[in-house]
Every structure is written in structure tokens, then in C-alpha cells.
Amino acid sequence: MSVLLQQLANGVVQGALIALIALGYTMVYGIIQLINFAHGEVFMVSSYGGLATFTLLPDDLKKSPAVALPLMFLGGIVIAVIVAVIMERFAYRPLRNAPRLAPLITALGVSVFLQEAVRVWYPNATSNLPYPKVFPEGSLSLGPINVPWTGVLLVVLSVGLSVILQTYINQSRMGRAMRATAQDPDTAKLMGVNPDRVIVLTFIIGAALAGVAGVMFGGYLNNINIDMGFQNGIFAFTAAVLGGVGSIRGAVIGAFIIGLIKTLAGQYMPGGTQYDYVWIFVVLILVLVFRPQGLFGEPERVRA
Amino acid sequence: MRKHSVKSAAIVGAALLVLAACGSNKNESSGNNGGSCDTSKGTLTVGVVAPLSGNLSALGIGIKQSAELAVDEANKKCTVKGYKLTVSAQDDEANPAKGAQAATKLSTDPNVIGVVGTLNSSVAQTVQPILRDKKIPQVSPANTNPTLTRGNDFLTAPKRQFDNYFRVCTTDDLQGPYAANYLVEKAGKKKIAIITDGKTYGEGLAAELSKQVAKKGGTIVGSEKVGEKDTDFSGVISKIKALAPEAVYYGGEYPVAGPLSKQMASAGLNVPLMGGDGIFDGKFIELGGKEGDLATSVGAPTESLATAKAFVDAYKAKFGKEDYAAYGAFSYDAANAIIGALAATLNGGDWAEGKREDMLTNVGKYSGSGATGEVKFDQYGDSTNKVLTVYQVTSGKWKDVQTGTFSG
After folding, report:
1. Chain A: nearest CA to B92, how far in angstroms?
2. CA B291-B294-B299 angle, 5° bins
3. Residues B350 and B371 in one domain
4. Inter-chain contact A231–B258, Cβ cutoff 8 Å?
5. Do B239 and A14 touch (CB under 8 A)?
6. Domains contained in chain B, number
């Protein structure tokens, strides 16, 4: 029993991380029907951004987590947003009216570019880099369950930010403009919505969430490497598809489902942790066979 | 006007050539200590295949630079009459497919006299046959999988696999059991859990350890696998924790082992993690290796061997840092075995590809005193030096706790 509870807790923490990244996939898809494969790399770059911020801090600030930690988040988010804005402006905007395949291939290209750029230019990025020890140490013990404080923080941030995002999109003026653009960009334009602004904002929000995820990833797992973007990007993308790509709620729930499948299958299915990825994709395939639009997605609209 | 610009381009070009010539002259004279050796017959190449980029690059670069040191010293001492030696280092990224490319590239060069490498046993498996086809001797500083030299039945029916393959380090069939003896007998850990990364090296090590643990009266309470690129091990750790092991043995390398050890501690599984030579690196501690974690490594501690001191001093003088890593001294010895065999093969004569057959014989017969002790090969190509050391993380550093040979 205690093992089950512990694995459930592990799954929730993994899901929280995936959810933060999956939001970026699902929002961008909702607005411009682009699977932004480079989003995983934005997450990775933000993690290095947070680390670089820490490295650049003066020594006395390094010792004070209350200052260093928020600055690292800020650094990670700023780097992620800058990368995302440049990416949108120069890689995707010129292809806005091109066939859908063109930006998709571009996204793959941007992804490889970002990964190699970090590998070549970030000092010692060719191997794992340890993350600074400014995060709360120790763990929360609830009976038999043990969750590191960084894991707790990750879940709180992930759920909190998703709720804020959902509220923002449903209630703010800009959120309404986003929904309008997602439904029909041409009509939205006629109603006075500036689609370029809406799209840039979408990329910025997605990148900021990935930035939080990037820094938290370093804090939770103590290490970062240049492959982390690809691997977690695939999970996040899968979560978005599972939940119904374009749906905020779907991406978050999809992410928690994936986190839980990973840890529970690792514990209880034959083959153990060696085959946990297999079960994630088995569930994905089953969902897509019986409900192609995903759990919370709308059926594909045909654009006029 | 047009003529004029062509002319000035020609002048600039000529000037560049002169500069380039000056540059290379300068390099040469500093390379062989004032050009006192006769290098009239040309240049011969010692190949290196190791991971120069990627997660294991700390180990790979130690291998490359130590081989360069050996070649440099040979050039200064005129060990090979008439030839200048150089190192051609190829990156295998710890990836068997990349290793095959690197080996193919080296094997097409008629001036390659031997190859130092690889780091990973899995990469060695693809490199061995490529070099064998060209009869190029390969001396590994770090491959510890016993099947590479003695085949699948290495204990009961050993059979030499590749007549061009040698290694200067000892093997997992000794390293695994040596670790098992330490854990069960010395540290008193009877319940041991195993985690591996599924690669040739880690699996071999863990399999040999399991056998010996059972023999000594311990139990393997469970065994799990992690992916080489995994970062979150909470699932595996929770599974293992439920089995209440007294120690965890990890078959694999430090990029996974470091974070794994740290995550074990934060999940409340406060038992030592032990591994083989693949986790014996400063990077392991940097990435999360904790106090009390253990590793076996091949040979005696480099710093404590009298024969190693000269190597360490020369390395520091050449590279300014002591980053020769776990296999530097072995790589230095491997390169020297190749150079020594070359000197014996040529014996003042000229190099030709046809002499590679003699090279193989001479590497097999090589005997010298190197940075890791005596360097000699047995009939399978294995090192006759079977010394192993257990290290423990003590106040943030690896410290040797036991050195010896495995004796059942």
C-alpha cells in the first residue's frame, strides 16, 4: 500500500512538470494549428538560463536562496521568452500562410538549432551540469510517503499557474481575443483583434511557463543536460494530444495521466521501469483510436 | 585595374603561405624538442577512439590527452627512429555506431600503427572487427567486459576473440566479484539491490556481482533497469526502497549514478550506492554522489603508485591540470605499448602496411613498466595486472579504502 501511495505521489510530481510544458504546446496549437516541436528546447534553454543567472550572481547573493531563487526563475523565464519571441518572429511568422507542413519542419529545425547552440556555446554543456543548491532541501513526509520539497513546489506552481492561465483566458479581454483568434482568425481581425499581437502573447505565455518548468526541473532533479528538452518535450506533446490538443484543461489532465502511467506501469506492469514508456504510448494509441480529438478536444474543424 | 588586383591577391597569398610555413616550422621545433630526432621518414599515427564530447567526455578527454603525452615523450626521446609520431583522436560519443565510423576512418589511413580505445565496452564491440580486418592493434585502457577478449563462455571455455585486441585494465569478472566481497564481507551489507542501464558494461558488471554475492551468503533483493537518458528515477527508487536493501549496486556510469544517488537520499533511501570504474570520477560527486558511496576501479590508486608519479607530474606539466580522470594512466600505458611494439617492429627499418602483422605479435610480447604497474598481456590479450581498488566518497572526494587482487 505504501508503495502504491509513494508511486502515486511520484506520478503527480512528474505530471506537474509535464503539464507546465504541455500548456505551451496546446496553446500554440490552439491559435495557429502548429505543433511547435521546438517548445521542448525552450524549456531546456530556460533551465540553462536559470543556471547562468545563478553563475553571474555575486557571491554573497548566491548564499541567500530568498534572493537567488526568484532571480533564477526570472532569468530562466526571460531567456525562454526572448527565445520564443525571436523564434516566432523569424521562424514561424514568415510561414504563417504557408502549407502546414512548412512550419512543422521549421519547428524541428529550430529544435535542433537550439539544442546544438547550447551544446556549443554554453560552457561544459556537453555533459550533465549540476544545479546550484539554493532550493529547499529535505522532503515532506506524510506517513509512508516521501516527497522532496522541490517536488511539492513543482506541483503547487504547476496547478496554480494552470488555474491562473485558465481564468485569464476565460475572463480577460486579451483572453477573449485569443479565443476569438483560435476560432476564426479572419473574423477576429474584422472585429479589431490584432492576430500578430495575440500570437506573440501566446508564445510568450507558453515560454514563461516552460521557463518556470525549466528552473524547477533543475531544482527537483539537481542536474540538467541538453537532452532534457527533447525527452520532456515528447512527453508534454503526448500529454497535449492525449488531453485534446488546443485544450488547456486537457493538457494538464493529460500530463498528470502520463505521469501516473509512467510510475504505476513501472511498478506493476511486466518489464518494470524498463518498459514504462511503452505503456504511455499504448494508452495514447488507444485514446486516439477511440477518441481521435483527445479526451477534452473538439473534433477537427474544417476551415473555409 | 583588374590586373593590379590579381597581382595584389597573389602577393597576399604568397605572404600567407610564408606565414603558414613559419607557423608550422615553429610547431615542429617545439614539438620534438629542438628537432634533435631524425624524422626524415615521415609521420606515423596513433589513433584514439574515445568519447570526446557528451556525458562521458571527462573520461574520454583524459584518455586522449594521456595518449598525447605518451606520444610527445616518445618523440622527444626518439623512441621510433626516423619517424615522428602524432595522435589522431576520434570522437565516438560513447555510441557504438559513431565508434564504427571513427574506426573506419582510422583504418583507411595506412600510417595508423595502432589505436588506443575505446572507453565503452559496447563501443569496443563494433570497433574490434573493423580494426581486425586491417590488422590494426587496438589497446583499450578501459574496456572491462570479459567477453571482449575471452568470448561468451569466458569462465568455462575462454577463447581468444580478436587477435588485434588487447587491454591494459582488468575485467568485470574480477571487478564485480571484488565489489561483492567488499560489500558482503567488509561492509556487512547482505541485502543488495541492483540497478543497471542495460548497456554491455553495466549488465556484465552486475551479473558477475550477483553471482559472487550469492556465493558469499548475501541476497540480491531486486534488480531494476533505468534508461541512459532518464533523469527522474523516483519510480525505480520507490520500487527498490520497498525491498529495504542495505546497499544499491549500480551497473553503469556516473551521469546516471550521480543523480540517482542524490535522488535515493531525498526519497529517504539512505543506503550507499556502489558502482564500478564507470562511476569512479569526480563528476559523480558533483552530480549528486553522496558521502559513503562506493566504487571499484581497476589498478591501484594512481596517486599512490611510485610508477605513476612520473606520469602525473608530466601530465600536469603538459596540460596544467590533473584531469587525466580514471583511465589516463591506463591510456598512457596503452599508447606506450603500441609505441614500444612499433619500435620493436621497425627496428630502424621502414614502415609499411605489411608490417602490421608483426605489430600484432610485438604488442602481444610487449612488456614494460608503466604508470599503472607492470604492462603485459596474456594469451587472450588481457592485462596480467589484476589489481583492483575500492574507493569511497569521504568529505566530498574519492578516497581509496582497499587495494588488492580478487582471490575468490
Report:
1. 13
2. 135
3. yes
4. no
5. no
6. 2
